[in-house]
Design a protein that fits this description.
Largest sheet: 10 strands, mixed
Order of helices and strands: EEEHHHHEEEEEEE
Number of strands: 10
Number of domains: 1
Oligomer: single chain
Region (Disordered): 229-268
Protein name: Lipoprotein
Number of helices: 4
Biased composition (Basic and acidic residues): 251-261
Low-confidence stretches: 1-21, 25-33
Helix content: 10-25%
Radius of gyration: 18 Å
Mean pLDDT: 87
Shape: globular
Strand content: 25-35%
Structural class: alpha/beta
Distance between the termini: 42 Å
Length: 268
């Protein structure tokens, strides 16, 4: 195999890594009275998002340099499935083993992912490749996760100069959560990811392989700032420790968080 890197950059949650951070609810947080079990997204911009994987828009597939429209279409659908497995699979979300995501990885990357899953060394821990709430810390309210995402294809070359197809994607996933004990407030948590998937062939006519590529930006809002293990923990109190100016979690123009920074958002 040509060198596509060992693994994607692990940037999820609140781990100290480039362009990573988490936001906690600020003083202007949504009134908890409007976040109900029957309408958990009422009053939030996420209310208008599509539900589940339907929120990831797959564009029309067109040929991209060395790759046919059929290749591009296949890459789009694979990327969509990987996003669903990483951020929507219920078992993974509740802290279980992310088997659905692992099954979609290239065999070489899958071996690495599973080897370092829940590694004690947080620089190696691959749990942060997916969205997982700490076991026992949360349960989903209702069946819906609100999603808004898009993707686009571009031509690239790998480190050896070989042709590569990249699917660049950007997505917001908004979850309604409450404590697993079912006592306590219902809160909304957002996970934002901007990254890419890489596709290539080892030789002409061979099957299209895929790789979970490097992240550009990956953060959560409405979570506690510290994560010792790669799992997210909803901030049920609004006192997660964020600082700095209050940002809008839905604003695409907001400046990205710096390494290890924990910002503050006014509403999810």
């Amino acid at each position: 195999m040509k060198n596509h890197g060992v693994a994607r950059m692990a940037l999820a949650g609140c781990l100290a890594a480039t362009l990573t951070g988490c936001g906690v609810l600020g003083e202007l947080a949504a009134d908890q009275a409007v976040i109900t079990a029957s309408q958990p997204f009422r009053g939030s911009p996420a209310e208008k998002f599509a539900e589940g994987i339907g929120g990831i828009v797959v564009p029309e597939a067109r040929p991209v340099k060395n790759f046919s429209a059929k290749d591009v279409r296949s890459a789009f659908l694979t990327s969509r499935r990987m996003l669903g497995a990483a951020h929507l699979d219920r078992r993974t979300l509740l802290g279980g083993k992310p088997e659905a995501f692992a099954e979609l990885l290239d065999a070489e990357q899958r071996k690495f992912f599973l080897r370092d899953l829940d590694h004690k060394d947080q620089k190696k821990n691959t749990r942060s490749w997916v969205t997982s709430f700490a076991p026992g810390s949360a349960e989903l309210v209702g069946e819906a996760v609100k999603v808004q995402g898009k993707m686009a294809a571009e031509s690239a070359v790998d480190e050896d100069g070989g042709p590569q197809l990249r699917v660049n994607y950007e997505a917001r996933f908004v979850y309604a959560l409450r404590p697993a004990a079912k006592s306590g407030p219902i809160v909304r948590v957002m996970v934002y990811v901007k990254a890419r998937h890489e596709f290539w062939r080892d030789e002409p006519g061979a099957r299209l392989r895929n790789w979970d590529g490097e992240s550009v930006e990956f953060w959560s809002a409405g979570t506690e700032c510290e994560s010792p293990d790669g799992f997210l923990r909803p901030d049920y109190t609004g006192e997660g420790g964020g600082g700095g100016p209050v940002d809008d979690a839905y604003d695409d123009k907001a400046a990205p968080l710096k390494e290890g920074e924990c910002g503050t958002v006014d509403e999810v």
